[in-house]
Amino acid sequence: MSTTVDAPLILLEGKEREVHEEDVVLIEDLNGGFILAVCRKGEGVDDNLRVGRYSPGVGYARSKGEAPSRAKQTYHFQLSFIGRIGERGLELNDRIVAPGSRVYAFGRSLDPMKYVGHEECISIPNAYLARDEGWKVPFDKRFIPYHIGVYGATGSGKSFLARCLLIPVLQRAGYDVLILDWSGVDYAPFFRRETIHISEFRKDPASAVAYICWKAGEFWYETPRNPVREALEAVITDDLLSEAPKLGLEQFKERLRSEVEKAISSSAGASRSLALLRFKRCVEKFSDDDWRALMGERSVDDLIPQPAKEPRGEPKVRVVNMYGASSDEKLSFFIALSGKIISAMDKLKEGERLYLSLIIDEGPQYCPCMPSGLQRRATDNIMAMCATGRKKGLCVVLISQGIAGDIGINAAVRRNLNTQFIGKIDPLDYDEASKRLGPFGIRVEELLNLRPGQFYFVGMLNPSPTPLFISFKVGEEGGGEPAPEPPEAHH
Fold it and tell me: Does CATH number 3.40.50.300 belong to domain 121-201+301-471?
């Protein structure tokens, strides 16, 4: 049964060996015109071998151990329409495709995506459509500020996708790229010159307190009330941290220790002598490097680019290496950074945009399913950046092993990510992936078995209304150069 969005495809004899799922084909509609479509839900049917009931073919197979006649054997796909080819490029198909229309496969020298793109489209480097390296993947740069989610289980290639596909294409569109590398191993080693360690930044008071308590093991307190933490919160201010580089290491150490000891000594309660003893014993174990981590000179303002009225001619990449910091310290840094980004967007003048892509690795660490504490503030800031960024030239990219639930990201944040790259999923994400891809004829079971470097591309950045299956070679750093042009087509 044909509709305006899909139709069945019956393969000619022998073609089942040549046509694959996710291949792009051309329909010559008997009602007029040509339609691009994707092959999905492939099936092979043999009426002589239908299970669940007896037939002569089944009896023959059981008694002889051989297949019966192939006369009643058929192979077919369900075609998911990309669109009708019109005078101005690809158009939405609004006509029922005539049954019996012929369908043609594209050869390797023909790129079907040249019909999909338009003047605002650029190609994603180092990636190709389906399994043919000559078929480029279009990317509609108008919708970059609508935000992106990259989902895939461990080993699916999502970090490679961000490094060698997303970063080059975002730069090509004129966006600076800022990456927060949670573990310090997925991006920092590949952008050594552009990497800044989190310890080089001047901490806000909350980050400094979190850092000291983490290094000191919470001063051996296991109860909600921690008198040493309370003293640190009273002593550590923005003024003290901004003066730290001028004071020098020894003077800063002595000033901080003496002021905290005074704050503990002046506090009420019988436990102050114990708190003072614990503080002294713990900070005695701090190395000079531990103290220097509190004396960062860089400001997070340095990470935010100047506003512009046009896409940037020479976009930059910067990586913040968060290795070695506690979770609270990382979250406090992010809260400070995201607050500055929101403030910068609020100050933009008419016609100005930020042209910044913020890539957040390990998304569930910032905005889990049920956030609390610092994660709650981080989640709120991400939602605020997404809401404001759509009109101010900010693209938020969240990378996560899971889509939803305990292994995924917050539902309210997820709804703001218009475009998704979905690779191999965890079985726990079956239902969520089904909601996103099932309506387009994609069997979600197949997402459980995708190989590294295989993703579905869905959303506004994809100029095709149906998700496209893209591939890339994991482990081959692309350097951001565009894929080579395919040879000129000859019919």
Answer: yes
Q: 405-446: per-residue pLDDT in tens?
A: 989 999 999 999 999 999 999 999 999 999 999 999 999 999
Which residues fall within 8 angstroms of residue 289, CB to CB, at 6 or more apart?
none
Helix (H) or strand (E) holding 433: helix 430-437
pLDDT < 50: residue spans in the chain: 478-491
Burial 444-475 (b: 16+ CB within 10 A, else e): bebbeebebbbbbbbbebbbbbbbbbbbbebe
**In the structure encoding, which two tokens stand for residue 267, read together?**
């506090």
- From its phi and psi, is residue 83 left (phi > 0), alpha (psi between -120 and 50) or beta? left
Scan for tokens 């042209």, then name that residue: 355
Q: Domains of the chain: which residue ranges?
A: 6-105, 121-201+301-471, 205-292
First CA to last CA across the chain, in angstroms? Answer: 31
Contact 354, 345 (CB under 8 A): yes
357: number of CA atoms within 13 Å, CB side? 32
**Residue in the structure block whose two tokens are 């913040």:** 320
